[in-house]
Amino acid sequence: MASENIAHRSVCHVYETPLEFFDVINREFGFTIDVAATAQNTKCSRFFSVKQNGLSRSWRREVCWMNPPYGRELPRWMRKAYTEARDSAATVVCLVPARTHTGWFHAYTPQAEVRFLRGRLRYVDTDGEAPFAQLLVIFRPGLARPWGMKLWEWRPRTKQQLLFSIAG
C-alpha cells in the first residue's frame, strides 16, 4: 500500500505534451487521432475527450497519439493501447512515465518498441522538468515488431544535427 501511495502521490495526473516534442514524433508517425485529450491540450484535430472516453471507443486502423492520465488509470490505458494494436490494426504511440517496475510495463511492453527519452520533458504550464523519466511505448498493428529498447535523443545537441535522430 505504501508504494502505491508513492507512485500516485501527485494531485495532477494529466500533463500536456510539449508541442516541440510532439512535432518530432508526429513527423515520424503522422497521427490521425489523440485518444486521451481535452479540447485544451489535444495535439490532433481529431481527439477523444474525457466525456467521449477513449477507453470505450474503437481505435481501429488509426495512428494514435496517447499521453494518458498518469494516475491509477494508466494500466487500463496501456492495456487498451496493446489490445487495439493487436486486434484492430492501430498504431499507438504512448508517452508514459518510465515505471519499469510496474505490472503494466511487464505485461504489455514486451510486444512494443520502447524508447527511453534522454533527459526529462518540460510539460506545458509546469514549473521545470517532469519529476520522473519518460518512455515512448510504440505498439504497431498486430504487434508485428519484436521488442526493442533504445535510448532516444529527440533534441539536437548541436545546430548541425537533425532534429530527429535516434541515438544508439
Q: Which CATH-level-2 architecture?
A: 3-Layer(aba) Sandwich
Which CATH class applies here? Alpha Beta
Low-confidence stretches: 1-11, 162-168
Work out the number of β strands.
6
Distance between the termini: 38 Å
Largest sheet: 6 strands, mixed
- Number of separate structural domains: 1
Structural class: alpha/beta
Q: What is the overall pLDDT average?
A: 81
Describe the structure.
The chain contains four helices and six strands; from the N terminus they run ααββαβαβββ. By secondary structure, it is α/β, with parallel strands linked by helices. It has one domain (2-152): Vaccinia Virus protein VP39 (Rossmann fold), CATH 3.40.50. The protein has a six-stranded mixed β-sheet. It is globular and about 40 Å long.
Compact summary:
Helix 3 links the parallel strand 2 (63-66) and strand 3.
Features:
168 residues, alpha/beta, Rossmann fold, six-stranded mixed beta sheet, 6 strands, 23% helix
Give the topology.
Layout: H1 2-7, H2 19-29, E1 33-34, E2 63-66, H3 74-88, E3 91-97, H4 103-108, E4 113-117, E5 134-139, E6 148-152
Parallel strand pairs: 1-2, 2-3, 4-6
Antiparallel strand pairs: 3-5, 4-5
